[in-house]
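Q: Sequence in, structure out?
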Amino acid sequence: MDSFFGIGFPEFATILILAGIIMGPQRMGQVARWLGKTTAQLQAISRGFARQLSAELDSIDDGGEMKSALADIQDLRRQLTDLRGELRTQTTGVLQEGKDAIKEIERSILPPKLSNPLRLDNEAEAGEDVSKSENGASSAPQLPSPIDIQDDPE
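A: Exactly. Output:
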């Protein structure tokens, strides 16, 4: 026994001595019996599994079922690849539509562009009329006039 879970003989002996000191001789015997029973149960389960596996492998008739199972698996893989491709194309299409919708919303939120933007104050001081365009008409948008609302009599 060179190594058991990366533990050599000196380390294993040290662990057993410490376990004996901590648990005491009476409890150490109970733990050893419990470990023995658990090991025997695990071995019985593994032997049963090995027997069942070998019986299943023997029952397969000359690989015919195995070949059909492999063909089914390959067919499922092809279908899965096709579905992945469809999913990618659908999601990219929806994603592009979403991006286009966001761009359209961003464009609709922007303020309208004026044909003659307001000039800087120093240009206006130089004698240029900001509110008049070349033909003399006002290019700035006209704001609605305020409405007079009478005070509430109450």
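Residues 9-59 form the longest helix (51 residues).
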